[in-house]
Amino acid sequence: MATQIGSKVREDIDWYLSSLEREVQWAVDLALRWDDIDEIEQEDLVGEWSLVVDFLDRSMSYHDKGLMSRTQYQRLNAIGAFLHEHRPVLASVLGEENLMFSLHLERHAVS
Amino acid sequence: MLILAFDGWSAEIEFLRSRMRSMFLTASRTRHSTWGRNIPGPLQDLMRQHGYPVPDRGNDLIFHWAKHVLGDQQWTSDTTPEEYWQYGQAAIRHEESQLVVLNAASGHDVAIVIAKTANVVPERRLGPRAGDEVLVIYSATTGRILSVHMVESSFRLTAGTSTVWLPR
Description:
The complex is a heterodimer.
Chain A: H1 2-32, H2 39-64, H3 70-85, H4 87-94, H5 103-110
Helix pairs in contact in A: 1-2, 1-3, 1-4, 3-5
Chain B: E1 2-3, H1 10-22, H2 41-49, H3 60-71, H4 81-93, E2 98-105, E3 108-116, H5 117-120, E4 133-139, E5 144-151, E6 164-166
Parallel strand pairs in B: 1-6
Antiparallel strand pairs in B: 2-3, 2-6, 3-4, 4-5
């Protein structure tokens, strides 16, 4: 039974990490093309940003509880490094205040 | 976090709620005046997989429903686009829902209704990735509903210093 619960948790973590990777990539892509994209795409980023925050929160929660495998931990760190690399362009469209939530992960990823 | 009383603002707040209630996730028009929007391929695949028709071009409702119901699995896949929007409307109307305004991105001021999921979505409609809160996000800049989706907690989103909580 314990193994079954463990595999479900691992599956959930993989799902949230995949969602986070996809959404962060999407957000950075939009931010990099900000002046060329449609107003609707700009508003999509505004409207969906809370979901990116939520995916990161859930992923960090799994990490803090020690539930991540080494591979999952490496994926989370890669996301942190990616966010850190693109922080200036994300901050330019989202505002620095709206990126505060990811600082802990970014510092951890690049240290 | 900034919390203000806003005495005397009740009429404006009610206007905002009323405006959000009256809106619909309507068809999008791009700056090139093309009706509708492309639904991304992966979302089209999910729609076909669950037996829903796939339009050549969708509207905002179809886009957000497909993303959050089928893609993010926040609602059960038998939740129709119309029902999905009804849950958003229920969030706006519910007496315990909260309303905040914040500056979310450059040039965009948004109002967000935050409702407890348990108050507005029946248990039978909760998908495997449902969250504890339903958010309805409205752009005060362009007067459009931007999204209806669930999160586990809106705490981080609303913890910034530019967040203003509005009384009911």
